[in-house]
Structures are given as C-alpha cells and as structure tokens.
Amino acid sequence: MTHLLTVLALIAGYAVFVLIWPDMACGKCSGWGHKARRRRSKACGRCKGTGRQSRPGARVVHKGAAMAIRYIREKREGGR
Ligand SMILES: [Zn+2]
Which of 10, 13, 65, 69 has the most Cβ atoms closer than 10 angstroms to its Cβ? Predict the structure, then answer.
C-alpha cells in the first residue's frame, strides 16, 4: 500500500512539475536548435530549430488541468 502511495505521489509531483515547466531543452541538439555549432548547420528536426521540446506527458497534464479548471468553474457557477 505504501508503495502505491509513493508512486501516486511521484506522479502528482511530476504533474505539478510539468505544469510549471512544460518544455525542456531539446535532447537531440541540447537546446541549440541546430545540429552543430557550425554556421551552415541544418535546423534540428526534433524541435524544428526552437531548441525546446515538450516533456513527455505535458500535453496530457495540461489537458487534465484545463478539464479540472473547467469542472470547478462550472460547479461554482452552477451551484448558485
Ligand atoms: Zn533540437
């Protein structure tokens, strides 16, 4: 039981972390936006030259947060 709680706590912690920092430096180009530090290097394919990459699960967490906010708002407005 304690193990399950630990896993749940980790997931909750990760969800909060992703909500605050949804993106990270691209793993392929390490945030440079292109493959090498040369002048004529191609833009990185994974981040399309932005150097940023969304974390795994960021879209799911943000969708869940938006749904939760909508639910709370609707409940608050519907209650009165
Ligand atoms: Zn990249």
Answer: 65
